[in-house]
Design a protein that fits this description.
The protein is of the alpha+beta class and 360 residues long. It is 23% helix and 22% strand. The strands form three sheets. It has an eleven-stranded antiparallel beta sheet, with helices on both faces. A two-stranded antiparallel sheet has the order 3-4. Strands 14-15 form a two-stranded antiparallel sheet. Helix 1 packs across helix 4.
Length: 360
C-alpha cells in the first residue's frame, strides 16, 4: 500500500491510499480556501473556523456534542455536484485528483474539531453509483488498511481516547451524500455504548473469571440458531437480544482490542467475509427491493483503558428496515427510555440471512 499525504486549499489534511507503490499523487486543490465541496464559492466553515463543544449531561453522565456550524453542511446535492467524486471535466471537488482508489480527508463540517477531537471522511471508490458491496476484495482490503492506518494515527493525537470507524448507507439512516463513503470519529471521551460494554465485561470477569466477549461468541457458536456465517478467522451472528430488525455482529476469532491487532490471516479473510455480509443485506428483502439502508460500526477499545486487552474488536451491522417498504422508527419507549422493541425474532433474522447466501 502507498499512502500520499497532502493538504486541501483551506488547510485540511487529505490522504490517498493506493494498492500500487508507483502511483504518484501531485494534484493541487485549485479551489479558493472558502469554496464549498462542489467547487462553488459559497460561504462555509473550514476546520479552523469550525467550533465544536462537548457538554456533559449531569443526570446521565454521558457526553453531548454541540456543533451548530453543521447546520449549513452539504445536503443531497445532485450527482453532478457531488463533493466526493474526483475533480474532472472542469469541476473541482474535495478530491483534487482526477481519479483515486481510497481517500481520507478532514471533514469540512466536523462534529468534532480542534481540542474536541477530529472527524474524517473515507471515500471507498470514485464510482458515485457504487456501494461498498460492489467493491472487489482487493479494494475492500485497501479500505481495511486505511481504517487501520487512521486508527494508529488518530490514537497519537493529544486528547483522543477512542476512534470510531463507521459507514452510514442510505437516506433512511440520515446520509446526506449518496457517494459511497464512511467516516471516522476521534473522540476525546469514551462513548456511552463502549462504557456500558466495559462495565458488563468487568462484572462478568469478577463473577466468572472469564471474558464476556469470548463467552458470548462461544455461546452463539454452540447454539448455532443465530449464526450467519463462520470461517477460520471470522464469525458473524445475530445477537441474542438484537435491538434492530436485522443486526449482525462480526468478530475475529482471536480477540484483539482494535484494528491494529488483527492477524495477517484475519486481514486476508476480512474482505470476502464482509462483502458477503453486505451482499446478503441487499438481498434480505427480496430481489426487487431497493438497496438496504444500514449502519456498519467498528467497536474498538479506548486507548487509556487499563484493561483494554479484555475488549474485543468487532463490527456491528444493522438496518432500520424491518420489512419491504417499512422502517423501524425509534418510538417513545426507544427514544424516551432506551428500551428497544424488536419486530423480528433474532433467530428468524439469522435464518433469512443464511437463506440469501451467495451461491456458486
Amino acid at each position: 500500500m502507498r499512502k500520499t499525504v497532502t493538504r486541501l486549499a483551506d488547510g485540511r489534511e487529505l490522504l490517498y491510499y493506493d494498492r500500487r507503490d508507483d502511483v504518484v499523487r501531485e494534484a493541487v486543490d485549485r479551489r479558493s480556501p472558502h469554496s464549498s465541496g462542489s467547487g462553488q464559492d459559497r460561504a462555509g466553515p473550514t476546520v479552523g473556523a469550525a467550533v465544536s463543544e462537548v457538554r456533559r449531561d449531569p443526570l446521565l453522565g454521558d457526553a453531548v456534542i454541540v456543533a451548530a456550524h453543521r447546520q449549513g453542511r452539504t445536503h443531497h446535492p445532485p450527482a453532478g455536484e457531488c463533493p466526493l467524486c474526483p475533480s474532472r471535466d472542469g469541476r473541482l471537488s474535495e478530491i483534487p485528483d482526477h481519479d483515486y482508489e481510497v481517500v481520507v480527508f478532514e471533514n469540512r463540517f466536523p462534529s468534532l474539531s480542534g481540542d474536541t477531537g477530529r472527524c474524517e471522511v473515507v471515500c471507498f471508490t470514485p464510482d458515485h453509483d457504487a456501494s461498498f458491496a460492489d467493491l472487489s476484495e482487493d479494494q475492500a482490503a485497501l479500505v481495511l488498511a486505511a481504517w487501520t492506518d487512521r486508527t494508529s494515527a488518530l490514537a497519537e493525537l493529544p486528547g483522543v481516547r477512542q476512534v470510531f470507524c463507521f459507514e452510514n448507507r442510505g437516506a433512511e439512516v440520515g446520509v446526506t451524500l449518496a457517494h459511497p463513503h464512511g467516516q471516522i470519529y476521534a473522540y476525546p471521551f469514551v462513548t456511552p455504548r463502549t462504557a456500558l460494554m466495559q462495565r458488563a465485561v468487568a462484572a462478568h470477569l469478577a463473577t466468572t473469571g472469564r471474558n464476556l466477549f469470548d463467552d458470548t461468541v462461544e455461546r452463539e457458536l454452540a447454539d448455532g440458531a443465530r449464526v450467519v456465517l463462520t470461517g477460520a478467522h471470522w464469525v458473524a451472528f445475530v445477537p441474542y437480544a438484537a435491538h434492530w430488525p436485522y443486526e449482525v455482529h462480526l468478530y475475529p476469532r482471536r480477540r484483539v482490542p482494535d484494528l491494529r491487532g488483527l492477524s495477517d490471516g484475519a486481514r486476508t479473510a476480512f474482505p470476502q467475509t464482509y462483502l458477503e455480509l453486505l451482499r446478503r443485506f441487499d438481498r434480505v428483502f427480496g430481489p426487487d427491493a431497493p438497496p438496504t439502508p444500514y449502519v456498519a460500526a467498528w467497536h474498538q477499545a479506548p486507548y487509556d483503558d487499563e484493561r483494554r486487552g479484555d475488549f474485543a474488536l468487532h463490527l456491528e451491522l444493522f438496518t432500520v428496515r424491518r420489512s419491504p417498504g417499512k422502517l423501524k422508527f425509534l418510538a417513545g419507549s426507544e427514544s424516551g427510555m432506551s428500551v428497544f422493541t424488536n419486530d423480528v425474532r433474532p433467530e428468524a433474522a439469522a435464518e433469512r440471512l443464511r437463506e440469501v447466501a451467495t451461491t456458486t
